[in-house]
Structures are given as structure tokens and as C-alpha cells.
Amino acid sequence: MNILYDPDSHLGLHNFGIEIPLTDQRTNNVMEFLQRQEIPLNKVRSRPDYRLMTKEDIALAHSHDFTNRLFGTEDEKAAEIIKAFELKNPDGSYHRYNPANASLPLAKLVEQALLQTSGTLAAGKVALEQGESFFLGGGFHHAMTFEGRGFCVLNDIVIAARYLQRNHAVKNIWVIDIDVHKGDGTAQITQNDPSISTFSIHMADGWPLDDGGSTEAQDEKPWWIPSTIDVPVAQGESQLYLQKLKDGLTKLADLDRPDLAFVIQGSDPYVLDSLPSSQSIQLNLEQMIERDFLVYNLLKELQVPHCHLMAGGYGPHSHEPFNSFFGRLKELNTFSRRHS
Ligand SMILES: [Zn+2]
User: Fold this and answer.
1) What is the per-residue pLDDT across 84-93, written as a single tens digit (0 to 9) for each?
2) How far is the CA of 48 from the centre of ligand 1 (A)?
């Protein structure tokens, strides 16, 4: 496993006056653990083909209008950030946002989203070259073709996937989303794209509401657009989670073997996650590790190159599932020597 990071891609939401508990402390805690364990870490920017994402790259997944606004004036960028992070209430008052505490303009968060996407792309290339990679960032699965949503400005997953299809002879791609929230943006963007198959196991009852694949009113409720395989887990069903995941992965394995898989490895199903809206699935640490290795082992068995992304995970314990995953991988001796 090759673990990659970009110290400049941190979102640093508090610098923008945003009060959402998605802190950089999670990544810092994981990095400290890796250093203590002497697990090598590589910088994405040390790759000779490191690429800052361009407007053309972003348009691989996003609409012309949305792409233009993200590359538009400072006000247009700030308006998109307000939407993506839901910083305004319907009455116009601020929500989890206090501009008085900001030291940086909101528009700069667009740059951070572009850096995160560059990291995901670099990690995708490493997975193709070396078989497996993990980017300490990325996984912004709620961003839709037409706007950012749910703390996600850009859908780095689909942008990277389509970039690799266009430039690196990759044909079919799987996106395996085990974050506690549905990968609704990824499903929406790829709904008419048979080259990208999406799998999502998520809360049946929490945000974004999933009606199990209704075809009605999809224009108004794009989060209802089904993934290729959806595995909703209802409140109180946490003990069935691993069996449902196994059954879902069995269905996935019946599809044609892809050339690459992205794993959206959110740590928010963890029982100690602090986001109030993610409480309807609560897995303990052992169950989290089993979750991660059900996916990891399947991809190893099928010999599919795989790139893991961090996605969601909130509060002071959100690094723990990642540390356990890397600790277990170290026991399995999967880390190659530092190359940068
Ligand atoms: Zn999530």
C-alpha cells in the first residue's frame, strides 16, 4: 500500500469561519500514527506528472455553468462554497458560519477542492502503477454535476476516474462507497455512464434520504438516483451491517472485473463519530476493520488495482478506524519502501 498526502490540500475550515467538525486533526492524527509506526508516507506533489486541475478537467464531471462559476469571480466562488457547505439558512441567516472568525476568503476553498482533486488523481495513478494506494484526503461523493453539496465542492472521484479513462487507457471503474452517507453525487453524475459502476452501503434513514431507488422526481431529488448497487441499512440494523455488506459485494463481484476501483472509506459509521446525523449506523472498531478488509480483500482477490480515499468522519475519534486499518496492513507487511 502506498499512502499519499498533500500538506497544502488541508481544508482548514476554521480559517474560513466555518464551524463544521470536519477538522484537519483527523489527517494529522493519522499521519502521526503512521510516523510512529514507521509506515512510509509519500507526497503527491513529488510525482513528476503531478497536475493542478484545470477547468477542462473539472468539466469531465461537472456542468458547464457550474464549472464556469467555480472559475469565475470571487463572489461566484464564494456563493458556490456557501451552497456546498450549507452556510446559509433559507431566511438568509448564517448556519455554522461566522465570517467574523475568518482569516481567509471563502473563495479560496475552491482552490483547496482543486488540490484535493489533484491528490485523488495522483493516488489513482499510483494504484494503477503499484496495485494499491491510499490518499489522505478526497472522497467528496455528494458533489453533483450542477453544484457542490454536503461539504463537497467537487466530485474528485468522478473527475479522477474520467481523467484516467481519457488519458491512461482505463476502461471500467468501480466506486465502492462505504461512507455512512449515500454516494449520491457519484450516482447522479454517473447515472448514464455504464463505464463507472457505483456501490453504496449507507444509512437508509439519514441524510441524504434514499427511497431505495424510486424513479420518480429525480430532477427535483437527485439524491434519489440509485447507485448501480445500493445497500441501505436501516436504523437499529448495525448488527446486520457486515452481512449486508458481504451480500452486496457478492453482487458487485458478479459484474465485469474493472480496471480500477476507488474505495470511499469514510470513517463516519464508527460508533464514536460525532456528527449527530450519522448516528443511525454505529459500528465498533472491530466491525470497522472488518468492513474495510471485506472490501480490501475482495479487490486483492480479484486483482483489481484500488485507490482508497478518506471521505467523511467527524470529531476527536474519527482517525481511529484509519489507524486500525493501517496497523492491520502493517502486520500484513503490505508497505513498500519510501520512494520520495
Ligand atoms: Zn459521510
Assistant:
1) 999 999 899 9
2) 32
